[in-house]
Amino acid sequence: MSQVKKTAATGLAEQEPSVDVQAALERVTGRLREVEQAIGAVIVGQNEVVHQALMAMLAGGHVLLEGVPGLGKTALVRAVGGVTGLSFRRIQFTPDLMPADITGTQVYDGKNSAEPFRFAPGPVFANIVLADEINRATPKTQSALLEAMQERTVTVGGTGHPLPEPFFVLATQNPLEMEGTYPLPEAQMDRFLFKVNVEFPAADELLAIGALTTGVQKPEIRTVLEPGEMLRWQELVRQVVMVHDVMEYAVRLVLATRPEDQTAPPAVRRFVRYGSGPRGLQALLLGARAEALRAGRPSAGYEDVRQVARAALRHRVMLNFEAAAEGITPDVLLAEILAEEIR
After folding, report:
1. How far apart (Å, rounded) are the C-alpha atoms in residues 123 and 102?
2. Which of 33, 57, 127, 283 has the fewest C-beta atoms lying within 10 Å of its C-beta?
3. 188 and 240, same domain (yes or no)
4. Taking each helix axis from N to C terminus, what angle separates 302-313 and 244-256, rounded to the nearest 10 degrees?
């Protein structure tokens, strides 16, 4: 293996970073650990969910959280908003929710004769927006939110209104109840940088949750970050070095999810209808850079890409009926791809 590959695999830059750069990386790493500890004080377990949500925010992307009711998805998003010091709004999606209920609308103001109509912003105008049970709203309403996610602006009455920066959407959906729901189309799922599965807690975590939430003292959310810190970190993420070999590795992972590609494993060709596209590659690269920044390294390596591969690709792998009949999930196929792919 060449020196470049060794450098990429270990996540180290080709040249050692300067003292100032290394000190800056260590400060960011320390601050991120403070954030995770503050969230852990109010949310028991779900460490991987917290980690993936923060990595997506560092990368400037949105997150889809999937899990059965009662696992703390809403509490988790609320804690992330409080700890990071960002403004937070929650939208409960229902079938009767209209696009204007999310984006805002023009209202009549009789006191202002020069401009009788003014824009009343909707709940989407916040740094962190919790879209609770997004699959319960109609496609028209879903599209209004997803347009805001992509364009970072809301257009009402022919006028564009920019959303606050940073802007994140953390959406939840229940995988059990399908009656009365409107599943997100594949093209709209692709707008989410990560899809994170929220698993049922272990027995010791369940015991800790009971003790924490039913006692006399309620856990308090402590603000850790200062305004603007998250924006500065997003800029740092894009400055993390990624050598060509690591990028090629990410490309191979994406191509391996596509059944028409000759490099796809036999299981992918058998069970997958459509694989990932360019947005999947972007999610891999940005997520890997965020992982490297969190670890205090100036460059991203192979393991950083592997770390985010499932969250970045699981919602971009569309299975066929045969996969559903045999209980095959995207995670099963991604595990096979990661095991077979040789650097």
Report:
1. 6
2. 33
3. no
4. 30
Contact 237, 59 (CB under 8 A): yes
> What's the rounded Cα separation, in Å, for the pair 1 and 273?
36
Q: Helix, strand, or coil here: 219?
A: coil
Nearest-angstrom CA–CA distance, 27 and 29: 5
Q: What is the pTM of this model?
A: 0.85
pLDDT (0 to 100) of residue 221: 82
Q: Which domain holds residue 233?
A: 1-33+226-343
**Same domain (yes/no): 211, 237:** no
SS3 284: helix
Give residue 5's pLDDT.
43
* DSSP code of residue 261: S
Say how far residue 238 (Cα) sits from the centre of its chain. Answer: 16
- Residues lower than pLDDT 70 in the chain: 1-21, 110, 112-114, 177-180, 341-343
Closest by Cα among 173, 94, 169 to 129: 169
Helix boundaries (H) for the chain: 3-10, 19-40, 47-58, 73-84, 99-103, 139-151, 186-189, 203-213, 229-237, 244-256, 266-271, 278-294, 302-313, 321-326, 330-340
